[in-house]
Amino acid sequence: xxxxRRLPTSCLPALLLVLACAPTAAGEPPRxxxxxxxxxxxxxxxxxxxxxxxxxxSGSQGSLQFxxxxxxxxxxxxxxxxxxLDMGDSGWSASVFAPRFLDVKRYPQARFVATDGMQRGTGxxxxxxxxxxxxxxxxxxxxxxxxxxxxxxxxxPFRRTIGFSATATLKRSDYGMTSWQxxxxxxxxxxxxxxxxxxxxxxxxxxxPAPVAGDPAPPPND
Length: 222
Description:
mainly beta, disordered C terminus
């Protein structure tokens, strides 16, 4: 029997670094969780021809598997809390929550799932096509995506973070919302700003971490 050869002590730090950086599952892209504090969905819809009414939704949660070198391997699943929609006025928000529109008591969440990867275009632009479930109806939807940045977040706990911007257009009538067509437009313009942090497991994203003693405080609504 050949004697066992011990790994030189000088090689141990390098080996530990390789093991720490190895993917959690072979062949799978890194997994990220949506940061609900820094992810916002905005929509605009015609208001009787006078203006575009604007609403925003915060608090989205979900996961994205994404490799910047292989967009086709991406997998996305995100939940949007429709009951957190804000129209800037409590009465107006209540009207949108009502059964004739979003009916949030029956359908408190929207969900977008894209399991066939992203199509990369020129530079940092591409498309993510999947299924949007809204108001109890599921239909295909494609998002035009811009990959903004990947890097370490500059405040504790300094997690690996990625950011995207996305836009899309849909018709509310396609999702069973046909009331007040003479007052409220049919086309809905979506804009999404999303930040995600590296996560080895599906878990709700925490709120903005507090800086450690001696560090400068982040600006409001960072």
